[in-house]
Each structure stands twice: as structure tokens, then as C-alpha cells.
Specification:
Layout (H helix, E strand, L loop, with lengths): L1 H9 L8 H9 L5 E9 L2 H5 L5 E6 L10 E6 L5 E8 L7 H32 E2 L4 E2 L1 H13 L6 E8 L2 H8 L1 H17 L6 E6 L2 E7 L3 H8 L2 E4 L7 E4 L1 E7 L7 H19 L3 E3 L2 H22 L3 E10 L5 E12 L2 E3 L5 H4 L4 H22 L6 E6 L9 H11 L7 E6 L4 H16 L3 E7 L5 H7 L4 E4 L2 H4 L7 H15 L3 E5 L4 H9 L4 E3 L7 E2 H10 L9
Helix pairs in contact: 1-4, 6-7
Bound molecules: ligand C2E and calcium ion (2 copies).
Length: 553
């Protein structure tokens, strides 16, 4: 019977206390029990686990309430006591054999309770983050699962959150305070929620939550910034923020993991692509994800079939309007249509696929240059883009040199464009890469200069050959007194003093050309001269050599 009970209990997901009445109901008729009271006082661990002291009573037929009850007290687990008070039936007094039987049952019951508490303790440790003292992802999965099974998930939204700048926080206030702030933050979030809503820690600085739909705005407000005091002084507090991906619950999801994954995808998109505080899983995101999946699937074959083409956007000297080079930009010719890079590069950049594309582009550029040289033309320098993803590849410079040499291209004709990076590890690798390429006579350019944060230290530490000023410096204004113009002027003179060349990208108007000339930036690239051109059109430009009609004084 005990075994049956245990086996049966194992299938019960919820806490097992509710089963006690049923069980007492089952054992009482086996004996001459008239009334049975069961009192339970949970120990610390069980109380933390949400269990409260309680008394259950069971009455059968006609209990002899006058009789002194027999009492048994047993310790079960984690400091928990259970106490039984049993009275016989009226006119059916206890005999020794009855008392023995009752004692056996009580001991058996205590044993079962012990295993239940053990299970509870086990369940607690499985569903809680010991180091952090909060619930963990397993708890979250259980909770979402429960809501799905009850058909209530539509009333809730699932959050996947990443606390912003934890590294910075630890550096600023110390690791210990940082952990304290994180823990308190979780508690504050918990405070605004009510069962079955919950917050849990996923690991590292990632948190999860299930929140009632009507409460998501309030919850989001807290994620945008909550001040948490730390240290002994009351006046010290840290403002903690988190980026969130939100997946509104729906019966269309069949698995808990699908909801959590959707929320996580949104968090990643918010963080790395949109730079937004949060993103909600909706039709637009679903379409983007479908496109991303499609791109990832189709890419390897498209690459093998050479569906990607190099377009060349001329770089022009502002001294004489001569074409002095070009940037190689990728286009995907798919079903006869030209697909611009913003529809596939960000997808490829989520994985190493982008590296294959960049090598492909460099190879095709080299092939084109070789063709021009072999036809007796005068080649110009071509820059190609290399994604940050390459920085994890220690052999990158060797591979670049190998491709260039395979086509016997003079090294000074290739410029490698790299965008800034904020990670110190990447910065170090970028420094090594740029130095190695420099030793090989291959130039490097800082792409999109000025939109990132680390520009200045990068210029100080890494021997780039060129900086490419981002178009945002130009598009805001043509007024030289404007702040961005002041900055640009100094960037240009600083670059020249550091021995670097400057080129402005995204040039669209004669006013901008005038301003650049005034500032001594004598190279430009942009729609004012040409959009990125297919190879043949660019060759025509090369033959023409000068944009005579576009001279600006
Ligand atoms: P990027 O490297 O900053 O390239 C410059 C982008 O600015 C190009 O967009 C170009 O068409 C656009 N542009 C040029 N002049 C003007 C102008 O006057 N006004 C405006 N509004 N835009 C102008 P595109 O070709 O769509 O490329 C977008 C981005 O895709 C590139 O930005 C680059 O980050 C990435 N990309 C393109 N090809 C490759 C590649 O082969 N490898 C890698 N890793 N990234 C690539
Ligand atoms: Ca570029
Ligand atoms: Ca750029």
C-alpha cells in the first residue's frame, strides 16, 4: 500500500499536501478510528518553500469525543513535525491490536511524508538558483507549462530579459555590490507580481518572467530603470536596466520552449539589431525570422552558384574629380531581382556565414582586378568589407594575403574595411590584424567612423591607414558651425597628423562637397557621384576616369 501510494504520488506534479486528506480517508476505515486529527508544523526549509502549518481533521461515523485522544508525534524532514490525534468510535473502545495498527499506519504515513518532503526539497533545489536565491529556468518552464495546460497562457506574456551593462556595473561598484543589486532587482520585480506570475533567473545576467498582460507596461517601466541601494550608506544606489524580449502567450504555441525561444529571439534582436529597450513577438518579427531562416538555408547553395555579385561604388578625389578607387558592395541576384545587403547581411552576421561571403567578395574583387590588369587597364584600389565576426579567426590576415597572392594582385590595391568594436578582446585582435596586414603592405580603413563609442582609443592604439567618416556626420547639416561639422573638422586634421587618410562616405550634395574641401577632406564616396554600380558600369566609369560635369568650386 505504501509502495502504491508512493508510485501514485510520484505522478502528482503539484505539492502533495492536498493528498493527505484523501490518504487519511483511506486508512481510517481500516481501523476502529472514529476521529483523526492531523497537525503539521513545517520546518524552515518547508516554510520557505511556501508550506504553512495546518490541521486536517477526519471524522467517521460516531467518534467518541469524550475519550482522551491517542497522540503520536513524528519528525519527518527538515525540522517538520507531524502529530496525529486519534479517537476511537463511540462504544467501540481501543484494544491493543487497534492501537498497534494505528501506530503502524501513522509510522507509515510519517515515512511517506518524509519522502514527500525530500521530494519537495529536491524539487526546490531543482527549481531554484542556489547561488542567487531566486527561482530558476526549470521553475519558469514548469510554470509556463502549467498555464498552458490550464488553457490560461493567453492571459500572460513571457519575458526574456538581459540586464544591461553588468560588466560595467561590477567594475563601477564591485562584484559583491553588483550581485546584491541584481538580487534586489529580482525581488523588486517579484514584488509587483502575484501568483501565478513569477520571475526567475536563467543564468548569468539573463532573467525570465511570466506576467499578466495588463501588467506588462508596469513591468516594462521597471526594466527601463530601477534604483537599487547598495553598500552600507543609504545614499548609494545603482540604476539598473534590462533589455526585454516579450512573447504574448497564445494557445497556438504547443511547447513551452517555443514561447521562451520566441521571447529570447526578440531580446536578442532588441539588443543587437534594433538597439531598442524591448521588442514584442508579432507578425513583423515572425516574417523577419522566416526571412532569416530562408536566407540561412539558401545561402550555401546561392554562394556555390555565385548568385552574389560585386557592385562597385566609386571613390573620388575632390581635387580633380578623378575616380581613385571603389568600395566593393555585395548584391544578391535572386530570381532576377537585386537584393540589397540590409536584407541578408544582418542575418549572415549572426553566424560565421558572413565570413564565407567576405572571402567570396575579396576573391571576386581580386579576379576582377586581375581581369582589368590583363586587359591592359590601369587598376584602382578597391576596398572590401570584413565583418567583426572574422576577429575570432587567428588566421585571417594569412587567408587574406593568400587570396590576394593567388591572383597576383599588388597589395596596395586592396583596402580592408573594418568597423569599430567595443569589446576589448576584439580590439586587441583587431590591432594584431591591422599590424599584420600593414606589414604585408595591405591597407586598412575604419568603416562608419564616429557612430560607435571607442573611436578615439582605437585610433590611438591601432595603426589604421584610413578613416572613413560615416554619413551621419554629413547628413545632419551643411553648416560648418554646427557641432558635428566642428567634430568632423578636427577628426580630419587629427587623422592627417596621425598619418591617416580620410574619406567621407554618403556624400549627396554640392554643399557637402564644398564643406569637405574646406575641411581638407579630399576623398569622397556617395550618391552625388554614383550609386554602387555593376562591374561593367563601373568599368565604363574607370575609362571615363573623371566626373567633369560634377566639379564643385
Ligand atoms: P557600408 O560598408 O557603410 O557601405 C556603404 C553603404 O552606404 C552602401 O549601402 C552604399 O550603397 C550606401 N551609400 C553610399 N553612398 C550613399 C549616399 O550618398 N547616401 C546614402 N543614403 N547611402 C549611400 P549598401 O550597399 O546597401 O550596404 C550596406 C551595408 O552592408 C554596408 O555598409 C556594409 O556594412 C554591408 N555590406 C555590403 N557588402 C558587404 C560585404 O561584402 N561584406 C560585409 N561584411 N558587409 C557588406
Ligand atoms: Ca564599408
Ligand atoms: Ca560605411
Amino acid at each position: 500500500m505504501l509502495q502504491d501510494f508512493l508510485l501514485k504520488e510520484e505522478k502528482v506534479q503539484a505539492f502533495m499536501c492536498e493528498k493527505d486528506t484523501e490518504y487519511i480517508g483511506q486508512i481510517a476505515p481500516l481501523m476502529k478510528i472514529g476521529a483523526l486529527e492531523f497537525e503539521e508544523r513545517p520546518g524552515d526549509a518547508a516554510r520557505n518553500n511556501g508550506r504553512r502549518p495546518r490541521v486536517l481533521s477526519f471524522f467517521r461515523d460516531d467518534p467518541d469525543m469524550e475519550a482522551r485522544p491517542e497522540e503520536w508525534e513524528r519528525e519527518t524532514f527538515g525540522g517538520t513535525y507531524i502529530c496525529f490525534r486519534i479517537r476511537p468510535q463511540k462504544g467501540n473502545p481501543w484494544e491493543t491490536v487497534d492501537r498497534d495498527l494505528a501506530l503502524k499506519c501513522v509510522t507509515g504515513f510519517a515515512l511517506i511524508k518524509k519522502s514527500v518532503y525530500l521530494l519537495d526539497g529536491f524539487r526546490f533545489s531543482v527549481t531554484h538558483d542556489a547561488a542567487f536565491g531566486s527561482k530558476n529556468l526549470t521553475f519558469g518552464i514548469f510554470r509556463i507549462n502549467e498555464l498552458m495546460q490550464r488553457g490560461q497562457i493567453g492571459e500572460f506574456s513571457v519575458f526574456f530579459m538581459n540586464v544591461n551593462g553588468t560588466g560595467e556595473m561590477n567594475a563601477q561598484i564591485g562584484r559583491e555590490n553588483g550581485t546584491h543589486v541584481m538580487r534586489e532587482f529580482v525581488k523588486r520585480l517579484e514584488d509587483v507580481l502575484e501568483e501565478p506570475e513569477a520571475v526567475w533567473r536563467i543564468g548569468g545576467d539573463n532573467l525570465g518572467a511570466v506576467v499578466r498582460n495588463e501588467k506588462t507596461d508596469r513591468f516594462l517601466e521597471m526594466l527601463q530603470g530601477t534604483y537599487i541601494p547598495y553598500g552600507s550608506g543609504e545614499e548609494e544606489s545603482y540604476r539598473i536596466c534590462a533589455t526585454a524580449g516579450i512573447c504574448p502567450g497564445s494557445n497556438e504555441f504547443h511547447k513551452t520552449e517555443q514561447i521562451v525561444d520566441a521571447a529570447q529571439t526578440c531580446m536578442n534582436m532588441a539588443r543587437f539589431m534594433k538597439h531598442a529597450p524591448y521588442l514584442v513577438y508579432d507578425q513583423q518579427i515572425i516574417r523577419m525570422l522566416e526571412n532569416a531562416r530562408h536566407v540561412e538555408l539558401a545561402f550555401p547553395e546561392a554562394l556555390a552558384r555565385e548568385e552574389f555579385q560585386v557592385y562597385y561604388q566609386p571613390k573620388v578625389s575632390l581635387l580633380n574629380n578623378e575616380v581613385i578607387g571603389a568600395e566593393a558592395l555585395c548584391r544578391w541576384i535572386r530570381d532576377g531581382k537585386v537584393v540589397p545587403p540590409d536584407q541578408f547581411i544582418p542575418v549572415l552576421e549572426r553566424s560565421k556565414l558572413i565570413c564565407d561571403l567576405d572571402f567570396y567578395m575579396l576573391e571576386h574583387v581580386c579576379r576582377d582586378i586581375r581581369g582589368w590588369i590583363d586587359m591592359g587597364g590601369k587598376p584602382v584600389e578597391i576596398s572590401t568589407n570584413f565583418s567583426r565576426m572574422h576577429l575570432n579567426n587567428p588566421n585571417l590576415s594569412r587567408q587574406i594575403v593568400e587570396i590576394i597572392n593567388r591572383y597576383d594582385i599588388p597589395h596596395e590595391l586592396i583596402i580592408v574595411e573594418l568597423t569599430e568594436t567595443t569589446s576589448s578582446v576584439h580590439m586587441k585582435r583587431m590591432g594584431e590584424l591591422v599590424s599584420k596586414l600593414k606589414d604585408e603592405g595591405i591597407r586598412t580603413s575604419v568603416d562608419d567612423f564616429g557612430v560607435g563609442y571607442s573611436s578615439m582609443s582605437m585610433l590611438r592604439d591601432i595603426p589604421f591607414s584610413e578613416i572613413k567618416i560615416d554619413r551621419s556626420f554629413l547628413t545632419y547639416t551643411t553648416d560648418t558651425r554646427d557641432r558635428s561639422a566642428v567634430m568632423m573638422k578636427h577628426v580630419i586634421s587629427m587623422a592627417s597628423e596621425l598619418g591617416m587618410r580620410c574619406i567621407a562616405e554618403g556624400v549627396e550634395t554640392p554643399d557637402q562637397i564644398r564643406m569637405l574641401k574646406e575641411m581638407d577632406c579630399l576623398r569622397a564616396q556617395g550618391f552625388y557621384f554614383d550609386k554602387p554600380l555593376p562591374k561593367e558600369a563601373f568599368m565604363k566609369r574607370l575609362r571615363m576616369r573623371v566626373y567633369s560635369e560634377k566639379l564643385v568650386n
